[in-house]
Amino acid sequence: MSAVNPTAPAPQRVAVVGAGMVGLATAWFLQERGVEVTVIDRDGVAAGASWGNAGWLTPGIATPLPEPAVLKYGLRAVLSPSSPVYVPPSARPDFLRFVTGFTRNSTMKAWKKAMGALVPVNDLSLQSFDLLRDGGVDAETYEAKSFTAAYRTAEERQTLLEEIEHIHASGGDITFDVLSGDQARAIEPALSDEIGAAIVLHGQRFINPGAYVAALADSVTARGGKILTGSAVAGLTETASGVTLTTEMGTTEQYDAVVVATGAWLGRLAREFGVKRVVQAGRGYSFSVAVDDLPNGPVYFPAARVACTPVGDRLRVAGMMEFRQPEAALDPRRIQAIVESARPLLKGADLDHRQDEWVGSRPCTVDGLPLIGATRSSKVFVAGGHGMWGITLGPVTGRLLAEQIVTGTAPAQLAPFDPLR
Description:
Elements: E1 13-17, H1 21-32, E2 36-41, E3 56-57, H2 68-78, E4 85-86, H3 93-104, H4 108-134, E5 142-143, E6 147-151, H5 154-169, E7 176-180, H6 181-187, E8 197-201, E9 205-206, H7 209-222, E10 226-229, E11 233-238, E12 243-247, E13 252-255, E14 257-260, H8 266-270, E15 280-289, E16 299-301, E17 306-311, E18 314-323, H9 332-342, E19 355-364, E20 371-374, E21 380-384, H10 390-407
Parallel strand pairs: 1-2, 1-14, 2-10, 4-18, 6-16, 14-21
Antiparallel strand pairs: 3-9, 5-9, 6-8, 7-8, 11-12, 12-13, 15-18, 15-19, 16-17, 17-18, 20-21
Helix pairs in contact: 1-7, 1-10, 4-10
């Protein structure tokens, strides 16, 4: 079990390592509780997985990444560079451990258990964005007037309908309409004639993630927080009075507590504090294109694993789950695979004149559940491993973790996400 001490004095000065959505939301909610915060990032605000992702706020379908469909793909499929889920061959022990554990958790029994753990935080996720807005974060969350999951056939659609049944059975709240291809095109003309069936989800939202996280950073600094970029944290040392943070430049600073929110790099600082779970980079790719008809909200092609979101006057097209080292260069084959998957499904999209080609590393765990809470040290906390849902669940993570850090008592919703599990 993580170290929790409700009788210890509340920390006054806290460092948050990582300036993505999760780290900045944690800093913001700590400020709400009167804590002085410093956010440290080796690159900059939203430099990791936060900038170029699809920007969906979709608690209705925030589901565990290990799922029975992964087993259905089979090993041969995931070893193909054009597969939506790509696992390059590797002999690294931690990578093999991740793939073995991920596969073991890709059963319906494991999925249902993990889904049950996610529902309580999913239920608080949109409300947490509203708290940020009400607290002065000057960024828009857009209501998805339509959130369309589109398929070639009604048979393909059955997979998501069954998943929604399981989400409902786990206590998740999601309402939807089942449409024909023509009905879907009447709502979203950007869908091609290949689309023969669709589901429209209600009550979901979306954001421009880069702009939103930048606005969140602005709010943290406007409220007196510091954001230090360009210096990586090399190590953490627990002391009698707190935690000494050492940068790669050799400078040291003392804090009452530290939160590690470094995404796919989480294990580097957290491992020595008892966090043994492998956090593997599940790299996603995206780019933006001009379209004749900009959709009213996100468009999802689940069979192709391609996610589209209106960002400004362009369409961001995102996809792939590539299990690889987070520092690896952008692989043009991944971009091309998304293009070829999306081309027959989108109408009026200029896929040959792409901008903003990007790769970012989502932090994935073997059981599909994040790591949130205290470590073996009651002064070192972690927040990460959200897989594809770091944007959706970032604010609720920060809200609940800030409560634990200040009160010394972990909220019940965080129990399944114990970093020492």
